[in-house]
Design brief:
Elements: H1 32-46, H2 49-57, H3 59-69, H4 71-76, H5 78-86, H6 89-106, H7 112-129, H8 135-155
Helix pairs in contact: 2-3
Length: 156
């Protein structure tokens, strides 16, 4: 696996830079072929009878074992590994959709702005609109709350 492009900078140069930013990769999008092949390899490995038994006996030991066996992947992609450990159909669909979308960005079929807008729309749909019955009901609820607050302010 290729090492990231790391640039060491002084504290003085850190002014205005997000302190949570540890490094900036050479490429905006990682090697998706590597990520995909590793996901498939890990999924195949954890679906063996021996690994299923280990997971049933102790999920903590199981996860540590997988992290050690796939140490490079575990180091660079801990969030993906966590999704794999949860191994729900929904997580796997989201992960594969993400990879497919990023491949389209790499192939210049989509822009990152388009992907970001779509991602935000999906989040809004799932976490804001869906729980209250859709976008219209969400907007009605927001307007009602706003009207109540406005009426309270006017009474004062």
């Amino acid at each position: 696996m290729e090492e990231p492009n790391v640039k060491v900078i002084s504290k003085k140069d850190m002014k205005g830079i997000d302190p949570n930013l540890i490094y900036k990769p050479k490429e905006e999008i990682v090697d998706l072929n590597y990520v995909t092949s590793q996901i498939i390899e890990i999924l195949n490995f954890i679906n063996t009878d021996e690994m299923k038994k280990m997971k049933n006996d102790s999920s903590e030991i199981f996860e540590k074992y997988i992290e050690n066996k796939f140490s490079d992947f575990s180091l660079w992609y801990p969030s993906i590994l966590k999704l794999i450990f949860e191994n729900t159909e929904e997580n796997m669909k989201k992960l594969m959709n993400l990879i497919n979308t990023l491949k389209k960005v790499q192939n210049k079929e989509l822009s990152m702005d388009d992907v970001y807008d779509s991602f935000l729309n999906d989040l809004h749909e799932e976490y804001l609109y869906k729980p209250v019955g859709g976008r219209e009901k969400f907007e009605e609820k927001i307007l009602k709350k706003h009207d109540k607050k406005l009426k309270k302010k006017l009474k004062k």
